[in-house]
Amino acid sequence: MSWSFETDADFQAQLDWIDEFVRTKVEPLQFVLGSPYDVKNPANIKLVRPLQDEVKRRGLWACHLGPELGGQGYGQVKLGLMNEILGRAAFAPIVFGCQAPDSGNAEILAHYGTAEQKERWLKPLLNGEIVSCFSMTEPQGGADPLIFTTTAVRDGDEWVINGEKWFSSNVRFADFFIVMAVSNPEASPYQRQSMVIVPADTPGIEIIRNVGFGAEHVPTHAYIRYTNVRVPADHLLGGEGQAFVVAQTRLGGGRIHHAMRTIGHAKALFDMTCERVISRETKGRNLSQLQMVQEKIADSWIELEQFRLLVLRTAWLIDKHHDYKLVRKDIAAVKAAMPKLLHDIAARALHLHGSIGVSSEMPFAKGVIDSFFLGLADGPTEVHKVTVAREVLGAYQPTTDLFPSYHLPRRREHAQALYGDALEDLQATL
Ligand SMILES: Cc1cc2nc3c(=O)[nH]c(=O)nc-3n(C[C@H](O)[C@H](O)[C@H](O)COP(=O)(O)OP(=O)(O)OC[C@H]3O[C@@H](n4cnc5c(N)ncnc54)[C@H](O)[C@@H]3O)c2cc1C
Hints:
four-stranded antiparallel sheet, Butyryl-CoA Dehydrogenase, subunit A, domain 2, 14 helices, four-stranded mixed sheet, alpha+beta, about 50% helix, Butyryl-CoA Dehydrogenase, subunit A, domain 3, 3 domains, Butyryl-Coa Dehydrogenase, subunit A, domain 1
């Protein structure tokens, strides 16, 4: 039997290096640069590229990818330990080559892309030279992909795309978009849509506006219109009608990476809160001496440790089974717990900091709004909870009896039948 909560010494040395590097060199970037995804901005090139090179030299670039794609092929537990450090800095994922949505897009290009698509899109994406966009959600709804109406119609040797997409992140910086569109309205619902690669400079693409998320100072989520956008037929990613299968693959390894990074984000806010409450006085007493403050600190610490254990255990299960279907319940549980964890820790941090906590001079309001992003971007929390409940209940059997199988009179009757004679024999000998 093996059961361990320890990291081996070699990997711990890597983690210690990552921690120091992120704190000293990566965290400051968010205070002097705009969006991490603005990879062609001269300032980003000047400051970010040397750090990416350092990460590459250290063998820590794009660790979620297999060696054939230039990564380390780390399992999810190692990625978990690494990502919980990266989660504290906005630029860390891009510096380590593992930022969403590019990591997922790279995954589907690696899986379904033709040799030409890989050469043209995957290679520069993996090198960090370009970024990409996943254009799926529509203004009329995102949680239910069956209501999407954007079309891709075959015309000779081209696909012609028409429709509107909503919250397509990073369109303004991306070199290409992976667009989900109805290619055969007559097919069965899950075979109606296809994925098409659309180069960003294709005529007919119109950014209606870039929508800001929360306090984002560079609005990056595009409301975008595709009008007679023509791409060559070979720009289909995967087979025709395979959009749902491709979308599932896209979630592959990245299924709980947001959760891993959320641990780092929440821990950073928690650390700030601890410093504050041991530093601030009210009515002659330190905030940390007040019981209701202590309760908030204890609740945050306990919730963070609980969530971390759930994430790491789920990562361990993914590594063990190599079959996401067997870990569906655990992954859904992680996704359902994630927004609440960040929300509660960010909200306590904000409140315990008082007026400065609610101000734009502190990162707590952003933490609170980020928690809502976590409850949406990977699908609404409700959907994940339904998955957990369905999987959990699937392991139980209903009773056909009028009273429950655990009804106490029945259990007493059963116990009596099992041990009654032995007790009577004992009674007779006393
Ligand atoms: C920061 C951010 C970045 C994003 N980036 C991208 C991107 O790059 N590309 C992209 O395509 N999309 C992106 N999205 C969109 C995201 O995928 C959608 O927000 C998500 O799928 C939900 O769709 P919706 O916003 O239309 O909400 P709706 O589908 O309208 O759902 C609204 C609410 O209804 C409830 N609800 C919905 N379905 C159910 C259900 N089955 N059971 C119970 N309750 C339910 C939930 O409370 C849900 O929050 C991003 C979103 C955010 C917040």
